[in-house]
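RECORD TYPE: inverse folding
INPUT: structure tokens
STRUCTURE:
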């Protein structure tokens, strides 16, 4: 059988939109010489192999099939289950007379194998513990309504684990948004091309574990359709030899950059302190912190290696700017006149920089510089900050995170790190990347400050800002994943990442 990969770190690096996957299907059939029914059979076989691997003792399954090719995959799986000796309850939705030739063939195969299908009438009469979702595929472009919404509610209301074919019904393959309602799967087996929506927004919440099956399609088929986005992770960057290189013995601290953190208005000194510590833990040769005078002692007590200076004016900040090689502006910066003064002074210096938090909020105000003319600048907005920079609502940003990130990158000519589940990176030249590391425990105060420090350290050690952003986002997320092992997501603090960061960069 065509067995898929099941570990997230072994998912493909190429992510696709629904229209691109349809093009892959077409090329596989027309240019790869794979019959449509053969392709459907391989999908059903891959999904059934996953089912047996995940639930080896199950003797009964319930299958939901729509009229499209997603339903055709379900018919194949139903036939295989019958041949395997399982009891199969099979529900259909939609007009089966509209099935493609391949789906009709799959249906005939299932009926010959002993599958007895019945139209879903609104009630799920099933006592088993596995449900297969083959209702809707990648072609969904409007909210789920009617019988399909009823069926999804019935599936989600049942105690059974759900295996979703290709993607959970109701999930937008392009954006990761739920189209009214969506099946909540324990495992999703996706075919031919990884759908980008599985890994961001609500995608991970409803897809469960994700497995990928190439269906033995010629790699040249995939190569002919450029992916819309690259999936990155700390382990994948390691396999691609894109991590920080090992250090020579004959080196000194000046070779690894001098990161200056600018931030920490009254009452927010901790943000600047965490950014500074993160920069140090990720290998910056020197770390300074320009902050309010009352914050200098706490910063020094927590991390005496940081050169903390109290600044109240542009004149006091200028000498620090002259010694720095990378700036991180924004952690705890606030939005006072002091904050604006420091930001204005920092922006006047032609240095690589990371802009975060209140620096972005100030920049979204009228009258501020909004273009950076090709400078090495990384901005790290959460959806709220992105919305302010784009002049739209948060819901609009989240409606299509890929487009929002790309629009920000093009408008401001910076590298964008749009934080959230499935953090997105966008380059002004059109490149997109999605980090598949990270967990919900990262939704706590200070995580963004730590990320800013990490990115500053990567900029200090990398000549390429895009590479630095990729490294920084991945090591930050991977550290958070390490930090929850054995203790869980709830209660994860930003400072819990510090030693994990150091472990990972070595």
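DESIGNED SEQUENCE:
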């Amino acid at each position: 059988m065509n067995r898929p990969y099941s570990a997230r770190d072994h998912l493909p690096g190429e992510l696709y939109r629904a229209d691109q996957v349809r093009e892959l299907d077409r090329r596989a059939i027309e240019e790869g010489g794979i019959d449509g029914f053969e392709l459907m059979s391989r999908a059903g076989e891959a999904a059934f192999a996953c089912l047996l691997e995940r639930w080896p003792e199950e003797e009964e399954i319930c299958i939901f099939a729509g009229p499209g090719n997603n339903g055709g995959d379900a018919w194949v799986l139903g036939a295989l289950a019958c041949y395997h000796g399982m009891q199969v309850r099979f529900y259909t939705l939609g007009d089966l007379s509209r099935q493609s030739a391949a789906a009709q063939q799959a249906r005939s195969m299932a009926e010959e194998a002993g599958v007895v299908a019945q139209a879903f009438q609104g009630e799920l009469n099933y006592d088993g513990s596995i449900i297969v979702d083959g209702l809707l595929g990648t072609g969904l472009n409007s909210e789920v309504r009617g019988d399909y919404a009823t069926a999804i509610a019935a599936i989600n209301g049942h105690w059974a684990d759900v295996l979703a074919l290709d993607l959970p019904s109701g999930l937008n393959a392009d954006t990761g948004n739920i189209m009214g309602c969506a099946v909540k799967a324990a495992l999703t087996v996706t075919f031919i091309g990884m759908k980008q929506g599985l890994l961001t927004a609500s995608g991970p919440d409803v897809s469960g574990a994700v497995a990928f099956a190439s269906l033995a399609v010629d790699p040249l088929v995939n190569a002919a359709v450029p992916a819309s986005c690259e999936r990155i992770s700390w382990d994948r960057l390691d396999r691609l030899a894109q991590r920080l290189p090992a250090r020579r013995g004959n080196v000194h601290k000046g070779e690894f950059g001098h990161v200056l953190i600018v931030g920490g208005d009254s009452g927010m000194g901790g943000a600047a302190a965490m950014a500074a510590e993160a920069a140090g833990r990720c290998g910056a040769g020197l770390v300074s912190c320009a902050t309010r005078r009352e914050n200098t002692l706490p910063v020094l007590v927590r991390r005496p290696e940081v050169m903390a200076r109290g600044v109240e004016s542009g004149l006091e900040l200028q000498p620090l700017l002259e010694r720095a090689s990378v700036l991180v502006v924004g952690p705890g910066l606030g939005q006072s006149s002091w904050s604006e003064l420091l930001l204005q002074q920092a922006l006047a210096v032609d240095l690589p920089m990371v802009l975060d938090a209140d620096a972005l909020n100030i920049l979204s105000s009228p009258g501020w510089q909004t273009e950076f003319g090709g400078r090495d600048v990384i901005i790290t907005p959460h959806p709220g900050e992105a919305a302010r920079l784009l002049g739209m609502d948060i819901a609009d940003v989240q409606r299509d995170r890929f487009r929002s990130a790309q629009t920000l990158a093009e408008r401001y000519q910076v590298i964008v790190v749009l934080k959230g589940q499935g953090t997105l990176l966008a380059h002004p030249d059109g490149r997109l990347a999605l980090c598949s590391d990270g967990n919900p425990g990262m939704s706590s105060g200070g995580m963004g400050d730590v990320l800013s420090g990490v990115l500053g350290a990567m900029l200090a050690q990398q000549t390429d800002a895009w590479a630095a952003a990729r490294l920084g986002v991945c090591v930050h997320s991977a550290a958070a994943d390490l930090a929850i092992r054995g203790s869980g997501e709830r209660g994860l603090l930003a400072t819990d990442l510090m030693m994990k960061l150091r472990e990972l960069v070595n």
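NOTES: The chain has two domains: 8-227, 256-504.
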